[in-house]
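Kindly review both lines to help learners:
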Amino acid sequence: MKFYSRIRYKLLFAFMLVALIPVVATGLYSMEVSGRSLLNQELNAQRQLVSGLQRSIDSFLSSAKGDIAFLSESAPLTHFLAVRRQNSSSPKAVQAREALEREFLAFAKSRGIYYQVRYLDETGREVVQVYNVKEGMSDSAASPGWIKRGLPLESCPQC
């Protein structure tokens, strides 16, 4: 009887193993297929997101290119450059610079997407800068002196 008992357990184990193999194989296959499907679905979603961002960036850069072309043909800018070539420290140059600043500010306000407009000369030095800051934002990073106001060295004993 002991002999039959051992055979019975061995057969039971073998039948259970034979029954579990297809279940485990099906489970592993299902996990692989669903994982691949989820990965493809997420990749497609990310591609669509990146494509939308690319269109937005391309549209913005195209608009900015047009804005640069517009500003480069600006009468106050051409006048400022002409006066600056003659004498950059004359009162006429100061007036031309102020007129250019007003032009840049009006442009920035009318476009509504630029919080600052700057003109750099041939050497890369900033000559004109205009900030288009809304009311109540004087202490934000959009205002020109925010770094100086944000870092008072006198109040820091370790600095």
Observations:
- The longest helix spans residues 2-72.
- Residues 145-152 have pLDDT under 50 and may be disordered.
- The radius of gyration is 35 Å.
- The beta strands are 116-120, 126-131.
